[in-house]
Design a protein that fits this description.
This protein is mainly alpha-helical. The protein has three helices and no strands.
């Protein structure tokens, strides 16, 4: 798994957490904006980096067991014949 998406997410969460924790230094309240964004980034990161690959792998294993898994190259050869 590439490390770039993970590092980008961690950097964004760290930056927004810092904004959320130090909101008292600014005139406008930033904490109510930053806190839900941090939660959304954590939730979406878990979904994209963990849940979706596991779901995809599970579906592909099920297709492989049933014998319905076809490669894209195999479909192409059948169409040409």
């Amino acid at each position: 798994m590439p490390k770039n998406p993970i590092l980008m997410v961690l950097l964004g969460i760290a930056a927004l957490a810092a904004i959320s924790c130090q909101a008292y230094r600014w005139e406008e309240p930033v904490e109510p904006i930053a806190t839900p964004i941090v939660g959304g980034m954590i939730t979406s990161s878990i979904a994209v980096l963990i849940l979706l690959p596991v779901l995809f792998m599970t579906l592909k294993e099920r297709q492989l067991r049933r014998g319905t898994l076809r490669t894209s190259q195999g479909n192409r050869d059948e169409e040409l014949a």
